Automatic annotation (TrEMBL):
It is found in: Cell membrane. One of its GO terms (cellular component) is plasma membrane. Keywords: Antibiotic resistance, ATP-binding, Nucleotide-binding, Transport. InterPro entries: AAA+_ATPase, ABC_transporter-like_ATP-bd, ABC_transporter_ATP-binding, P-loop_NTPase. GO terms for molecular function: ATP binding; ATP hydrolysis activity. SUPFAM superfamilies: P-loop containing nucleoside triphosphate hydrolases (SSF52540). This is ABC transporter, ATP-binding protein. One of its GO terms (biological process) is response to antibiotic. Residues 2-242 form the ABC transporter domain. It comes from Streptosporangium roseum (strain ATCC 12428 / DSM 43021 / JCM 3005 / KCTC 9067 / NCIMB 10171 / NRRL 2505 / NI 9100). It comes from the Bacteria.
Length: 254
């Protein structure tokens, strides 16, 4: 479902003599099969957002090849938009001044979703994410947790095969976080949606992801199961400690 083959992405920053090249992602290769739920971890500045922007076609790679749902994201961005859902926890894709339900209606038009399918999907998501109480509220008046549920709904209205999430639980309280995790778990289990999740919250990873990939300085430093990751250190070590050790340059092998 997702194929990343020796992908690199660099940026040129600064001017004249201060000009330099930042290698945000380097020689990155991985494959995600249909139905997998994969956690994508890395310290600040490691290259996670750059990867996600390339997977969704916002950025083109400077080298290598990417295929998502059979399409080259940067060349087929419009076609890909019908097959992929994307949620950036730090910003909204909803219309700030419109009631939530109007944002959803606009998305239906943009994605040309059949009216009956849309109604069915929206009813399902309204129930699962408990949206009924604020469907008529303008997005700018929603709490962060409500807005996030709205954003997740917006990303799923066209029933995409792949969902890419960039920190979807950031800023959520413990109850909202648990509800969001349960929703994502069910989405993956019941609909078989392939999910790639970026987060700094290791609770998300522990509860949702069997497989974890770690990126550091633009390079993949670990790709395996959560159990493999845990097995790299003594049993009593928490997952936070395991990951912190890797972030600060420790080896992934015992
Ligand atoms: N548009 C850009 N122009 C220049 N440099 C960039 C650009 N986007 C990202 N970078 C650089 O690329 C590197 C990787 O950034 P990226 O945003 O992908 O990291 P990240 O893993 O998502 O970090 P965080 O966890 O802090 O969000 C950083 O050094 C960043 O400064």
């Amino acid at each position: 479902m997702i194929e990343v083959d020796r992908v690199g992405r660099s940026f040129t920053v600064g001017r004249r003599r201060a000009r330099k090249t930042v290698h945000a992602v380097q020689d990155l290769s991985f494959t995600v099969e249909a139905g997998e739920f994969v956690g994508y971890l890395g310290p600040n500045g490691a290259g996670k957002s750059t990867t996600i922007k390339m997977l969704t076609g916002i950025l083109a790679p400077t080298s290598g090849r990417i295929q998502v749902a059979g399409l080259d994201p940067s060349r087929r961005r419009t076609a890909l938009a019908r097959k992929i859902g994307v949620v950036f926890g730090q910003r909204t894709t909803l219309w700030w001044d419109l009631p939530l339900k109007d944002s959803f209606e606009l998305i239906r038009h943009l994605y040309k979703v059949d009216r009956v399918l849309f109604r069915r999907r929206l009813d399902e998501l309204t129930g699962l994410l408990d949206l009924a109480g604020f469907m008529n509220t303008p997005v700018r008046q929603l709490s962060l947790g409500q807005r996030m549920r709205g954003d997740i709904t917006a990303a799923l209205l066209h029933s995409p095969a792949v969902l890419v999430l960039d920190e979807p639980t950031i800023g959520l309280d413990v109850v909202s976080k648990a509800a969001m995790r349960e929703f994502l778990r069910r989405l993956n289990a019941d609909h078989g949606t392939t999910v790639l999740l970026t987060t700094h919250d290791l609770g998300d990873i522990e509860r949702l992801c069997r497989r974890v990939m770690l990126i550091d300085h633009g390079r993949l430093t670990f790709d395996g199961t959560l159990d493999d990751l845990r097995a790299t250190v003594p049993e009593e070590t928490s997952i936070e400690d395991v990951v912190a050790r890797l972030y600060t340059g420790g080896s992934a092998s015992p």
